[in-house]
Amino acid sequence: MPHRSTFRAKMVRPATELVVAPLALDPLSAALAVRTGFEAVYLGGGGLGYARAVSEALLTTTEMAEACRQITERVDVAVVVDGGVGFGDALHMARMVRLLEQAGAAGVEIEDQVAPKRAHHHKGVEHLVTAEEMAGKIRAACDARRESLVIIVRCNAFAHEPLEAALERLRLYEEAGADLVMPMTRAPEQAAAVSALTSAPLAAMTIGPRRPKAEMLAAGFALSVDPMSATVLAYRAIKGGYEGLRDGKGYGMAAAEVMAIIHEIGDTIRIEEFYEIEARTTERALYAKDTGQ
After folding, report:
1. Residues 19, 9: Cα–Cα separation, whole Å
2. Which domains does the chain carry?
3. Separation between Cα atoms, residue 237 and residue 99, nearest integer Å
4. How many CB atoms lie within 10 A of CB 29?
5. What are phi and psi of 220, to 5 degrees?
6. Are 35 and 79 in contact (CB under 8 A)?
7. pTM for this one?
8. What is the pLDDT of residue 260?
């Protein structure tokens, strides 16, 4: 898959370009991201869990793989998938990597929390596995891949352990084979220490505004994922629209604008491709009639 090799080629340090990946949970949002100018999207567990009205702690390997496959089937975009804790131990991690690779993922992000993941992580309650156990899971992930899948390792220790211990985790994760590390730092001095003491490319998880691209590149970042964009933006827009429908105001836009958006959606998903197939087959008689043939 061209997008997979292109994505991997950009995950270097120092990077010349910061790859920004907004949240996309389905082919339509992924196609809109591409239309807007993005070359990568993030299939986040938090967002997908909310879309299904559950915690991401209740999602499964096959649900994440199927959501990825639905996107890559229709959209030429690099998909970074939130693999969470690998849905189990090293054995489960290996199977997840194989399934996501087969689904067309360009990268997978894994993290050092306990398995199964707990819903309380939404409240900031995180329980870490040991650094040694996580290193073993990273090695299993790297051994399981067959192509150029990028392994991104998220470290949650900065809020729970001394800085030296968190940095030692990053060293072990790099040694185990992480292509990128995602340090979830909580203070500027932590971020500065990470940039100074790591050699692997860095990935950031940012909700909303992020640091200037030039500043992030200088600090060693190659990737920035936004885990909540599609969820928050869609929720706000749909909530306002539903309130308008409830109050008899419609969508809050003129009929012509509604139709224009519907047509734009069709363009975004390349619906003409389907029309062309039908024009040559099931609707051939209709087109022959229109052309007098």
Report:
1. 11
2. 2-227 (3.20.20.60), 234-291 (no CATH)
3. 34
4. 22
5. 110, 5
6. no
7. 0.95
8. 97
